[in-house]
């Protein structure tokens, strides 16, 4: 199964992906995570990407398309994959269609998690991420058992550089302008399933599973 998780920053894509990857055993492709890892390693691509990420802007299409194209060829993607945070522009969506066509593959569904803007700001500014395993928490909505410590690996939690209020505001504007048109793009192709992301984490997972199990 090849699934896209679509939605604004803070919608809960990563949170749901953790659960879905465990349940379905699919390969997980988060362009944001791949880029953050490149930034951490200080690679040439990471240095280029950091300039955009720090400003809340999108990294150029050709860079992310290249990342995803390479990643989709890895063996663990043979049975499909869960794409989180990609595509984010119509150019990326068209490139993905082309890449999948060349691989004789196709998308099964686009799960769109819809959340109100005010809630997104609260979620993003309170988000904490494990430095070691990347698990996601929220200071109020999804706190770890022990303050600042990851439940899963005991690692220290930290705040992402781009989760400051100023950058969050910019990222939400970028989403509206550059990514929201994808809703119509996938609706027209009969691939879009919209889930109300204003609910509790478990309720959203249940609804996504209902969609995926019917495919
Ligand atoms: P995304 O990957 O879409 O940017 P995340 O999965 O990282 O979003 O979630 C953003 C923040 O909101 C995290 O701190 C997460 O713990 C929290 N969160 C995720 N889903 C919900 C939910 N349904 N209700 C409240 N908080 C949530
Ligand atoms: P995310 O982890 O999905 O919130 O992404 C964090 C940041 O990485 C974004 O604000 C962008 O700067 C960059 N990024 C992630 N995915 C993409 C993408 N598909 N296209 C362009 N930039 C991306």
Task: Map the helices and strands.
Blueprint: E1 2-6, H1 13-24, E2 27-30, H2 31-41, H3 44-54, H4 61-72, E3 81-84, H5 90-102, E4 109-114, H6 117-125, E5 127-130, E6 136-138, E7 157-158, H7 165-179, H8 181-188, E8 192-196, H9 201-213
Bound molecules: adenosine-5'-diphosphate (ADP) and adenosine monophosphate (AMP).
Adenosine monophosphate (AMP) is lined by residues 9, 31-32, 35, 52-53, 56-59, 64, 85-86, 88, 92, 162, 171.
Describe the protein's architecture and organization.
By secondary structure, the chain is an alpha/beta fold. The chain is 48% helix and 15% strand. It has 9 helices and 8 strands. It has helices spanning 13-24, 31-41, 44-54, 61-72, 90-102, 117-125, 165-179, 181-188, 201-213, and strands at residues 2-6, 27-30, 81-84, 109-114, 127-130, 136-138, 157-158, 192-196. Strand 5 and strand 6 form a beta hairpin. Helix 4 runs parallel beside helix 5 (90-102). The mean pLDDT is 97.
CATH superfamily of the domain at 2-26 and 80-115 and 177-213: P-loop containing nucleotide triphosphate hydrolases
- Sequence of secondary-structure elements: EHEHHHEHEHEEEHHEH
Mean pLDDT, nearest integer?
A: 97
Bound molecules: adenosine-5'-diphosphate, adenosine monophosphate
Poorly predicted ranges: none
Identify the CATH architecture of the domain at 2-26 and 80-115 and 177-213.
Answer: 3-Layer(aba) Sandwich
């Amino acid at each position: 199964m090849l699934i896209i998780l679509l939605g604004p920053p803070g919608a809960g894509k990563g949170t749901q992906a953790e659960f879905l990857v465990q349940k379905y055993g699919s390969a997980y492709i988060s362009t944001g995570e791949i880029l953050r890892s490149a930034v951490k390693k200080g690679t040439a691509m990471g240095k280029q990407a950091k300039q955009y990420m720090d400003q809340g802007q999108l990294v150029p299409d050709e860079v992310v398309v290249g990342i995803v194209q390479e990643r989709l060829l890895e063996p663990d993607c043979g049975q499909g994959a869960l794409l989180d945070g990609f595509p984010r522009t119509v150019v990326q969506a068209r490139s993905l269609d082309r890449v999948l066509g060349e691989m004789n593959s196709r998308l099964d569904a686009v799960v769109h998690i819809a959340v109100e803007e005010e809630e997104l700001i609260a979620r993003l500014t309170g988000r904490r991420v494990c430095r070691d395993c990347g698990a996601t928490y929220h200071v109020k909505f999804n706190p770890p058992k022990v303050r600042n410590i990851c439940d899963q690996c005991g690692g220290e939690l930290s705040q992402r550089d781009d989760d400051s209020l100023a950058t969050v505001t910019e990222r939400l504007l970028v989403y509206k302008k550059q990514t929201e048109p994808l809703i119509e793009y996938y609706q027209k192709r009969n691939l879009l399933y919209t889930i109300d992301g204003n609910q509790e984490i478990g309720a959203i997972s249940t609804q996504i599973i209902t969609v995926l199990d019917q495919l």
